[in-house]
């Protein structure tokens, strides 16, 4: 039933499927039409009008993103009429904008700035519109909102609604007073916002940015009394290169480690260490719940759902507060790291924990909030002192004056620096599931996960909800009750997909035993703290880099990490889920309102 | 009194005693006959844009859809327009009948009257009429229900896609077109959105026949039109006039002897100065207004005591406030025009800045997402070019 249409764009004939937009048809013949409110991840808004083109025979110009081609259409994308109109539109946006670019965090990575540059906007064309009453909302631990830099493209609104189904931000008022705001125009910290930061990576300007902490960290590094340690999340190493001029998907792990050491961090450690630890604790917890449900016939919450993604955790706290028992009680790798840094690490290194500054480099905005949760003080101090995004860390490397490209590869320091290929998988959607199954399957059956090269392919890729069934047979004696059980798992990324999963749980129809949920589309590689832009093409490249990191590791199963074994021997002798483990590595959740 | 100024009394003529005779008669005819009559009559939309009504019904009839809807646009928000209110108050049965006929033609079982929030006082009477209509429909074996939907006071919701958004409980913002409502309107189903007067006029076509209807008016502007006359006139009110009269004839009849300008079509329409009264004809073919008469029938007269700067400032305040704010040219353009004329008047910007603003209205005309942003240029450019000295001094 597919129908094909003939159109002519700038003199080039092109055949496209019915329903194709002018923008996509032009892309097919390598014609670039500038856009602003358009984003590959989102539905079409057609409100900035930058992409207008001339359709011969029509009185008005057509928005290329929002107009489907029709047969025989003749389109001009770069006529004087089009150029003048676009230039005028950009000039209007500039007149509404806080143009203090020199002081702006997004300077040189701002879509309005690029457009203004491309169209060579005459600064004095229109009167600068006053935005005297705009105040920067710095109430949230994670996100800053500066309306004076907003272009009203509504990308954030569409992101929050379509990708995340949170609707923390939406359009308020109309006409000259129209702005992006929150419920009752309350500060971000007081509304139902999960801090995922997806609005930040979809914002074309600096209207929405992460709250920045790097100055505080430079101060700490400069303070000789402080012992500053940094741990870097798996997805940072495959994305930070983008902030330093490398193409998406470039692995710069070794250079990053060297840079951090040269910048003066006292110890450069790896969040992957606690990712491995999460697998041990969470895998044990899953088996514990399965034993209770299947063998002891006790009432226990299944499916069990992962808890590493703080955006997801806050989402379920707000949206499904009556189902929190499904969440694994395991802390996220960041918080396990913080709790151990100021106990185990401090003890072994002989450092007073009050002098330790624990910094986490994360792909995430929500991690900043997580670090500041009141319950995250199990070491006796605030476990994690500051969370940095990939973007902030990239900027710090630039600020340090290092020639990043020329740096030798370095290695993470020992004691909480060793990790496995399984841990690095945490960076991509499906990764926690894959890592967990590599361990759980082997613990239960004594055999390796039966997939070629350990690659659990059903968990991979950008499918909205991925499912798999793993038959458990010939289990070890201790796990004999699992014989014949088909372990059903699911993976969701993006909170709109999480909602589908949770609605099943809520209605009691969820067929799964174990579910991985990540707040951000693509998982952490697409997190709200990652380099801008992020789109599916870039997500795929970062994911490919994650899998390459995994395959490049000598050990690829969490339970074989020698430092993890040492940790249990020396520090948590009673093993996973023991009292000490519960104190430091597990947490509890808070029921929250939906308003 | 010139011939075309006679009060036709066609639309507001009494209908209350007729028990839905035209409806009964028309329902017996085939859909194709009904559409053909409408097309032959030359009836065009009376809300402002002037889209051929018969064609709109035909498109919706041909569009596939499990459900279809008829919406009567009674959001009458154009400054200086007040005729739809009178139609719904005095002759609601004409409107209800035409909605039902449209429903039969396109295959809709549900109709809505999107009533301007400020017209809430009409509801009890109108609802009583709708209840009566439902009884009549039962007698006619007609499966068609009508419901009133009250708007919340946004001007832009008179734009048909914004109106639909508002009915769906969303923010009243115009949609991207295509798809047009006849393909995907209310609840994404084929929908006819017709202005109140359009529906009343359609019923007149069915009553007197397309030939008689077509005899009225000139060129491609057929039938009569309700004009809301206001401003500096000794006889403000609603007048049912034939299309095609010149503005000179109109001012002769309604002016106070000192008329310096007439704003045709409300804030989104054109301002015609005295020297152009004779050459300006009221109708879709009007010389000055180019390809369409952007009027719901608003005729505002201004005499020499009025400052055209203040008139324009007032319109621009209105647009800057009433723009939905989603698209760049309308949201920022309206603000720039508003502060721009103020800056020129105060001498902050040189008079040449008005040329920059005129270019801006050209941009708005071709880039704004909906008719609101596109038509701001009309009043701006016609007032600024015709009364430039009042803008500067």
Round the mean pLDDT of chain A to the nearest integer and report it. 97
Side by side, the strands of the main sheet of chain A go 2-1-5-3-4
Biggest beta sheet attributes of chain B: 5 strands, mixed
CATH architecture of the largest domain in chain B: 3-Layer(aba) Sandwich
Strand arrangement within the widest β-sheet of chain B reads: 8-7-11-9-10
How much strand of chain A?
5-15%
Averaged pLDDT of chain B: 92
User: Tally of extended strands of chain A?
Assistant: 17
The H/E string of chain B reads HHHEHHEHEHEHHEEEEHEEEHHHHH
Provide structural commentary:
The complex is a heterodimer of chains A (595) and B (393). Chain A is α/β, with parallel strands linked by helices and 595 residues long. Chain A has helices at residues 22-28, 80-96, 111-118, 155-163, 198-202, 214-222, 240-243, 253-263, 271-295, 310-319, 333-349, 366-371, 390-399, 421-424, 431-445, 495-507, 536-551, 562-570, 579-585; strands at residues 4-9, 12-17, 52-55, 62-63, 74-76, 143-145, 169-172, 179-182, 208-210, 227-232, 267-270, 304-305, 356-362, 386-389, 465-471, 486-493, 514-518. Helix content of chain A is 34%, strand content 13%. Chain A has a five-stranded mixed sheet with strand order 2-1-5-3-4, sandwiched between helices. A four-stranded parallel sheet of chain A has the order 11-10-13-14, with helices on both faces. A four-stranded mixed sheet of chain A has the order 12-17-16-15, covered by helices on one side. Chain A has four domains: 4-78, Ubiquitin-like (UB roll) (Roll); 93-210, Alpha-Beta Plaits (2-Layer Sandwich); 226-273 and 334-406, Rossmann fold (3-Layer(aba) Sandwich); 284-329 and 420-585, Fe-only Hydrogenase (Larger Subunit), Chain L, domain 3 (3-Layer(aba) Sandwich), CATH 3.40.950.10. Chain A is globular. In chain A, 51% of the residues are buried. Chain B has two domains: 3-215, 3-Layer(aba) Sandwich (Rossmann fold), CATH 3.40.50.11540; 308-392, Up-down Bundle (de novo design (two linked rop proteins)), CATH 1.20.1440. In chain B, 44% of the residues lie in helices and 15% in strands. Chain B has helices at 21-27, 31-41, 53-62, 83-90, 92-106, 123-139, 160-167, 196-208, 210-215, 247-254, 308-322, 328-346, 353-367, 371-386, 388-392; strands spanning 69-74, 110-115, 145-150, 191-195, 217-218, 221-222, 224-231, 237-242, 259-264, 270-273, 298-303. Chain B has a five-stranded mixed sheet. A four-stranded parallel sheet of chain B has the order 3-2-1-4, sandwiched between helices. Chain A binds chain B through residues 44-50, 52, 59-61, 63, 66-68, 81, 84-85, 88-89, 92-93, 95-96, 125-127, 129, 152, 154, 171, 173-178, and chain B through 154, 156, 171, 176, 178, 291, 319-329, 331-336, 339-340, 343, 349, 356, 359-360, 363, 365-369, 374.
